[in-house]
Amino acid sequence: MKKLLNSTPYSVLDLATVIEGTTPADTFRNSLELARHVEQWGYNRYWLAEHHNMISVASSATSVVIGHIAGGTKTIRVGSGGIMLPNHSPLVIAEQFGTLASLFPGRIDLGLGRAPGTDQVTAMAIRGERFSGANDFPKDVLKLQAYLSADNKNSNVRAIPGEGLDIPIWILGSSTDSAHLAAAFGLPYAFASHFAPAQFLTAIDIYRKNFKPSAHLSEPYVLACVNVVAADTDAEAHKLATSLYQLFRGIVTGKRQLLQPPVDNMDDIWDVYEEAQANQMLACTFIGSKETIKQDLEQFLDQTGVDEIMATSHIFDHQARLHSYELFAEVFK
């Protein structure tokens, strides 16, 4: 069945990007302002991601930032895209999200990933003796579900608050492993196509074909995260997108920086190899005017049939970023 843009929910992934010349405190103020605007523009949910030891990402204490955003908004769903579960005890996450769901009932999402959200040395600092905790991810998801269930009330270990609360759990992924897990557990599936598009189509196909209905979800539900840079003209959008290109060049070279201002010519900054690598990672990226993005997004929806689209926008100027999200919302109207 053909999916239509005007019936597709659209959402935000905020990587709490720290911009050159600013601090994480500025980032959090800008995030809250963005969240208040997108709530008015009809966005469905606002997610934050757990990363560590990255100078350009301020959302390392993800649950705390979720509380900040939820506390400053009224209706939009707020959650994690995601919490890297092997970094934590399932009980502590049940308590943290139980607290959030008690403060903001009916508005909290819990997206779970298995990656460390950082480099191996930092992962060791976080996980310690649980360094191989990713192997326990399926068991830890089940433990977390148990702590959040009303049936856990007779257990010796209980999540207070958290027990008996209906907090939607999502499985996040950037490979086919997560697709099998989300399908087996009957949970909604969010794919990180904004930086790992290579296995995207294969993974969502595996998920849909192997999906087992559960008490949480009767049919498969796929959310795709994509990069978006929208502006009044294609030329302006492509200029703004050079900040995104510089960010991905930093990922490719391992020389990460704070988000840099746009430039006139990327050829002065990256070489052919860096450009090719970055463009592979940026295959699911939408840049241009409202009209251009609408056309490209309709093709993407036809090709993938995803149920929801989540936009992340690395734009240097805060007002230009707000305008990009406003234009993106208008695409769906």
Task: Give an overview in words.
One of its GO terms (molecular function) is oxidoreductase activity, acting on paired donors, with incorporation or reduction of molecular oxygen. To bacterial alkanal monooxygenase alpha and beta chains. InterPro entries: Bact_Lucif_Oxidored, CmoO-like, Luciferase-like_dom, Luciferase-like_sf. The chain has one domain (about 5-330): Luciferase-like domain (TIM Barrel), CATH 3.20.20.30. Helix content is about 40%, strand content about 15%. The chain contains twelve helices and nine strands. Strands 1-2-3-4-5-6-7-9 form an eight-stranded parallel barrel, surrounded by eight helices. Helix 6 links the parallel strand 5 and strand 6 (about 190). The chain is globular, with a radius of gyration of 19 Å. It starts with 9 loop residues before the first strand and ends with a helix.
Write the layout of secondary structure elements.
Blueprint: E1 10-14, H1 24-40, E2 45-48, H2 62-71, E3 77-84, H3 90-103, E4 108-113, H4 120-127, H5 137-148, E5 169-173, H6 176-185, E6 189-191, H7 200-210, E7 222-230, H8 234-240, H9 242-253, H10 272-281, E8 285-288, H11 290-304, E9 308-312, H12 318-331
Domain Luciferase-like: 21-307
Protein name: Luciferase-like monooxygenase
InterPro entries: Bact_Lucif_Oxidored, CmoO-like, Luciferase-like_dom, Luciferase-like_sf
Task: Sum up the overall morphology in one term.
Answer: globular
How many domains? The number is: 1
The fold-level CATH name is TIM Barrel
Through-space gap between termini: 20 Å
Strand numbers in spatial order across the main sheet: 1-2-3-4-5-6-7-9
Number of helical runs?
12
Total strands: 9
Helix percentage range: 40-55%
The largest sheet, given as strand count, sense and whether it forms a barrel, is: 8 strands, parallel, barrel
| Assembly state | single chain
Question: Helix and strand string, N-terminal first?
Answer: EHEHEHEHHEHEHEHHHEHEH
Class derived from helix and strand content: alpha/beta
Identify low-pLDDT runs.
none
CATH homolog superfamily? Luciferase-like domain
Kindly provide the radius of gyration, computed on alpha-carbon positions and rounded to a whole number of angstroms: 19 Å
